[in-house]
Each structure stands twice: as structure tokens, then as C-alpha cells.
Write a structure and sequence with these properties.
This protein is mostly helical and 295 residues long. The chain is built from 18 helices and no strands.
Length: 295
Amino acid sequence: MSYGTERFFKELAKATEGENLNDQEAMQERMDKFTKEYFETMDKKDRPLDAFDYLEMAEDAANGKEAIRYAKKALELDSYLLDAELIIAEEKSYSAEEFEKQLKAIIKKGETQLLEQGISKEENEGDFYGLHETRPYMRMRKEYADLLISQGKFRLSISEIEDIIRLNESDNLGMRYMLMALYSFFEDEEKALALYKKYEEDSAFMLLPLIALYYKKEDDKQMRMYIRKLKRSNPDVLKALKLFMDEDGREEIEDIAYSTTYRPASMEEVVLALTQSAFLYVPMNDFMDKLYREF
């Protein structure tokens, strides 16, 4: 991933530390000066590598040993890089249990770092991720929630994701989608509808779990209402469903599932919504057939 924005604001904070920038005009003037100098430095071919350079090298490394070496170099230059700590934990952990232990320690370290920067859950609740300093910490929380789901610890993952969304109401990390699938898994209609109302979004990520919820409750009227919403919002649903009904579609499904990008209201969106929450859909043997018939 690109860390350009986080690098910029870290360097800005470092450059302006101790400066009195209460006056808006003076602040803008200082920002303009810093921005010009920053990009001039970044454009230099011979500039020394910084912590973010090594972090990106660690993520792109050919093997685990190389990834650890670059991640450690990144931490030598910036001990606040939680993403580098994560890479080391992923490569060194010999089991999911060990990785969970390491991840919890990284999250705790992140909380300490934020407090040192004057950022607390109590005072900044709802605005996390809008503050650039919180982004590495929030990524670690997402990583932990994903790990809990992969371990089948669904109740714990619900509590974790609910807390993530409480901290970051705009939900830049898209945790609401997994939460909706989890609510549907436990047939928690009240919470699912509250989440849908909160974000008022008719994507496949939000609507498919609601359709599944009412399929499980054998409420065809409500199920078909959300199917109609999905039909209106995404014209490529049937195309996606055909991939799941056809054995020859597996390869394309896998290609889409491992892709890092997708186009909203597309076939790819539907495929991702179904594959990323497979724990919800796989146990329902007839669900895909019924959904296909309805479309």
C-alpha cells in the first residue's frame, strides 16, 4: 500500500514542532513552504531512504527473511511504524495463537503511542482515521478483527468491529460490511437494520447479508424487498451469480477475490461480497440457487 499521506503529515508535524502557528495566515504560509520543500526533497533521486521506503520494501519483499530485514530497518528509523511490527509478527509467528498474541501487543503499543500524541478514545471517539496519526492503529484493529473471524471467533469479532466503528463512524476501512454479515449469521435483525439505516447504502456488501438474513428467517416478503433494491443498485448481479452456478467460473471468482480493486455496482462487487463473507453463505445449501432463481 502507499503511505504517501501518512509520510507527509509525519514530516509536517516534525518540521513544525514547537512553532506557534495559531494564526491562520501564518499557518497557511508555513504549510505552503513545507509542501514545496517536501516535494522537492521527495523528487530527488539521491535522497536517503526513509522509514516508509523500507516499509514498502518489506511489503514487496521476495521472502520472509528479506521482509523482516527491511521491516526492522524501518523501525530503526521510526519506532512508531506499527505496520512494520505487523510484518515481523506475521513472518515470525508459528501459529495463529502466537500471531494473535503479537498483534494484541502491537495494538497496545499503538494505544500508548496515541496517548503520547494527545489522542485518546474518549476525547476523539468517532473521529479516528480522520486523524492521520490514528491510521496505523486502526489498521491493526482491522487486522485483529479479520484474524478473529478466520478463527471462527465470531462473537468476539462483532465486539471488536463495533468498537472500531464507534471510534471511526465514517468507517473508512469498510468494517460495516463484515459486521452486517456477522449480524446476519446470528440472525440479529434489529442490529442489522440499525446498521443499514445508519449508512443508508445499497451496495451488495450491505444488501446480500440482509437478503440472507430474511432467507434464514423464511420471510420471503422482506427477502424479495431487498432483492429488488439490489437489482436497482447493481445491474450485474445475475452475471456474478452465474459464475457461482457454473463450475467453469471458479477461476474467475478466485481472480476477483484476490484482486485489490473493484468497481462499485459491478459483478466484481457481488463476487467480493459473497466470497469475503463465505462463513455466512456457504452453510446455506439452497441460498445461491434461490437467489439465482429470484434474479
